[in-house]
């Protein structure tokens, strides 16, 4: 079973990957592996942010409905 990173850990790893790739000193094969990892992490971060946004929207809607009922 794969251990999932938190959002903060994922962003930190993405920053590491960007620095390594920007350096330009890695062999092509290693650069491609890092690029793949970065792409995966980016998609996971986007998914986490989307879920958080949905949850915030749901909470806000509940609070608005409760205020309207009072």
Helices and strands, with pairings:
Layout (H helix, E strand, L loop, with lengths): L6 H17 L4 H42 L1
Helix pairs in contact: 1-2
Offer a few descriptive terms.
2 helices; 70 residues; mainly alpha; single chain
Could you provide a short overview of the structure?
This protein is mainly alpha-helical. It contains two helices and no strands. The radius of gyration is 19 Å and the shape is rod-shaped.
Largest sheet: none
Overall strand count: 0
Shape: rod-shaped
Distance N terminus to C terminus? 48 Å
Rg for CA atoms:
19 Å
Low-confidence stretches at least 5 residues in length (pLDDT < 50)? none
Structural class, please?
mainly alpha
Strand content: under 5%
**Number of alpha- plus pi-helical segments:** 2
Proportion of helical residues? over 70%
Overall mean pLDDT: 91
SSE pattern: HH
Assembly state here?
A: single chain
Description:
The structure is a single chain. The protein has 70 residues and is an all-alpha fold. 84% of the residues lie in helices and 0% in strands. The protein contains two helices and no strands. Helix 1 packs antiparallel against helix 2. The N and C termini lie far apart (48 Å). The model has no long low-confidence stretch (mean pLDDT 91).
């Amino acid at each position: 079973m794969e251990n999932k990173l938190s959002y903060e850990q994922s962003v930190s790893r993405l920053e590491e990957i960007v620095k390594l790739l920007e350096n330009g000193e890695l062999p092509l094969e290693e650069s491609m592996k890092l690029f793949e990892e970065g792409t995966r992490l980016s998609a996971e971060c986007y998914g986490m942010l989307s879920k958080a946004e949905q949850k915030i929207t749901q909470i806000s809607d509940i609070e608005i409905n409760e205020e309207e009922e009072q």
